[in-house]
Amino acid sequence: xxxxxxxxxxxVHWTDQASDDSSQVIVGDQQRDRQRxxxxxxxxxxxxxxxxxxxxxxxxxxxxxxRDPKGNxxxxxxxxxxxxxxxxxxxxxxxxxxxxxxxxxxxx
Amino acid sequence: MNNIYKTPITVVTGCLGSGKTxxxxxxxxxxxxxxxxxxxxxxxxxxxxxxxxxxxxxTTILLKGGCICCNNxxxxxxxxxxxxxxxxxxxxxxxxxxxxxxxxxxxxxxFTVLTNPILQHHFYIECVITTVDAKNxxxxxKNNPELLKQVTVADKIILTKTDITPPNQKEGVIEQLxxxxxxxxxxxxxxxxxxxxxxxxxxxxxxxxxMFEKKDKKINKNHYSSDIQSISFTFNKPLDWTAFGLWxxxxxxxxxxxxxxxxxxxxVGEKGPIVLNxxxxxxxxxxxxxxxxxxxxxxxxxxxxxxxxxxxxxKSLKTFQNxxxxxxxxxxxxxxx
Lengths: 108, 337
Known about the structure:
CATH topology of the largest domain in chain B: Rossmann fold
Number of helices of chain A: 3
Number of domains of chain B: 2
Order of helices and strands of chain B: EHEEEEHEHHEHHEHEHEHEEEEEHE
Number of strands of chain A: 3
Oligomer: heterodimer
Largest sheet of chain A: 3 strands, antiparallel
Protein name (chain B): GTP-binding protein
Strand order of the largest sheet of chain B: 3-2-6-1-7-8-9
Largest sheet of chain B: 7 strands, parallel
Structural class of chain A: alpha+beta
Strand content of chain B: 25-35%
Domain CobW C-terminal (chain B): 228-321
CATH architecture of the largest domain in chain B: 3-Layer(aba) Sandwich
Distance between the termini of chain A: 40 Å
CATH class of the largest domain in chain B: Alpha Beta
Helix content of chain B: 25-40%
Radius of gyration of chain A: 16 Å
InterPro entries (chain B): CobW-likC_sf (IPR036627), CobW-like_C (IPR011629), CobW/HypB/UreG_nucleotide-bd (IPR003495), P-loop_NTPase (IPR027417), Zinc-reg_GTPase_activator (IPR051316)
Radius of gyration of chain B: 20 Å
CATH superfamily of the largest domain in chain B: P-loop containing nucleotide triphosphate hydrolases
Helix content of chain A: 25-40%
Largest interface: A-B, 35 and 33 residues
Distance between the termini of chain B: 37 Å
Strand order of the largest sheet of chain A: 1-2-3
Shape of chain A: globular
Order of helices and strands of chain A: HEEEHH
Number of domains of chain A: 1
Shape of chain B: globular
């Protein structure tokens, strides 16, 4: 359970699985690495989301916030829910096979 | 996350009469499998005799807005939970075998085990076995779309009844199975006399190797599986795991129903590779290995697709990796059409 938003987190998304699965974890041990990965992920996501006029913001190391230019915003927990939420806001799914998106990415 | 503390599950699928029960009956007599719990969906002609045997009636809960793979098998959920109770009370077991009906789609089983809040911490799917009748295999593939699905999801295919099949017919079936799922291990078994190890997963390496042995491109002339295609990549540079995860999760969100299988061994710049294994929308928790298996350090990735053009996958991956600043060098591209 997330203490900030009350969301019940039942699933660790496969992109969040850490390489080190040692049974003992010291509090705050991998905090920097984790945060670095999250910021890197946010930057990469924004590169793609920009074509759909959406922005993603990393929020306090616990959630992401997805916004559109009209001011709609949604709390997103991981990449699994990001694409789902983006589809909800846009009305269609972001498809990496979309030739139009690929062309835009190539021209950049 | 760590599978050491979880109970492995082996899923056995296959057409009606393809030898699932015969295989299990022989296997369960072996002393190594004494502590194995078995869940069956139907009692076939050949009865199973085992002290930890349970029967369920297939009930699938259709989740709201879910696709065909993302459905919960409530019967299995209940059965596995009661097995868990049993395990903690008295009867200890160290493996579960689920025998499905001939018509069952294995994807909801994987979905149930991987997403259920309780089950995901106590069980993991180690191996999916599909039995294929060598004598009638081609006919089954042609007539049963379920079998096609079972073959794409399988980690191992057990080719049965090879003793009563002419060699050229057997070769035909093997060739067809290789076209549908290039990354699968095909094992011939007569009368269910198989090694116990058959129900365990071998490391993903051999199966990935075997798909690269088949360099010669095959043209699929059979009309019945012409919409199933596969594409495999080999890279020699490490991929950016974050960028790759971004791409694959978006791809699966938009096209998951038509991506029958993703399998790969990926170099992401860590000490060991990541083993990736996915079925439609469902991705097994990626396994970060501590070291590379013997041989050279190369990433392999294979997609089995339905309807989607393999070229578009290649183009998309290339564009995304370029764009996200982690260029990769493609060594090989195999397409089985």
